[in-house]
Amino acid sequence: MAILNADQLLEHVETDLSDDELRRLIAAAEAEIVARFGKPDERTEELRGGTVEIFPAGRVKTVTAVVERRSPQDPNPVTLAADDYHLSPGSWLTRLHAGLNKPLSRGWAPVVTVTYQAVDDSKVREGVLIDLVRLELMHIGARSRQSGEIAVTAADYKAERMAILARLETGLGLAL
Predict the structure, then answer these.
(1) Calpha distance 46→173 (Å, rounded)
(2) For the chain, which end, N or C, has fewer CB atoms within 10 Å of the first or last residue's CB respectively?
(3) Helix/strand/coil for 100
(4) Residue 145: what pLDDT?
(5) d(CA 143, CA 172)
(6) Chain-centroid distance, C-alpha 12
(7) Residue-wise DSSP of 49-71
(8) Model-wide pTM > 0.85
(9) Which residues, in sequence order, are CB contacts of 34 under 8 Å at separation 6+?
C-alpha cells in the first residue's frame, strides 16, 4: 500500500504535473524509503556481528527472531532464545552471556539476522515522502540559474535529500 496517493500529496505541494507523473514521483520516493529503511511493519535485517551490540536500521518495537551464523554460508545457524539478548529502549540489541545459547566469543557471532516488528513510523514516512517529492519538484538541475535580473541559487540537492532521509534513521545502521 502506498504511503500517499496523488490527491493526498496535492494537499501539501503545488504543481502542474498530472496525477500519473505525481504517482511516478511518489513511487520513486517510496521505493527509496523502503530500500533504505525497510517496509513499515515486520523487517528482517542481516547485520554484522563481532561486537557486544548490534544496531538494526529501524526502531524496534518487538523482536520476532534472532539467528546467529559464523559466516553467511554457515550450515548450522543458531536461533537464539529471548534470554540470549537484550533489546534496549534505543533499539539496539546487546548479546547476553547468561542465556540459553552461550555466545562463541565475547559478543555476537559474525553474522546476525534479526526479524522484528518496527515501531510505527508512518507519519514520519509521510513527511519524508512529501519533502522528497517537494525537493524533486523544486530541483532545477543546476547550482544556479539567472534570467535577466532574477538569479536563483539552488540548495545542494544531494545534501538536502540525505537530510530528509535522515529523519527516518536510528542507531548506526550497520546493516550488511
Answers:
(1) 11
(2) N
(3) coil
(4) 66
(5) 31
(6) 23
(7) -SSSEE--SSPEEEEEEEEEESS
(8) no
(9) none
Cell of 157: 540537492
- Whether 176 shows a pLDDT value over 50: the answer reads no
> Which H or E run includes 147?
strand 144-147
Q: Is the pLDDT of residue 30 over 90?
A: yes
- Can you tell me which residue has the cell 518495537? 61
Report the residue count for the chain.
Answer: 176
The one-character DSSP state at 124 is: H
Residue 138 has which C-alpha cell?
Answer: 523544486
Residue 140 host element (H or E): none
Best CA proximity match to 171, nearest among 21, 89, 57:
57
Confidence category of residue 172, pLDDT binned at 50, 70, 90: very low
Cα–Cα distance for residue pair 69/72, rounded to 1 Å? 7
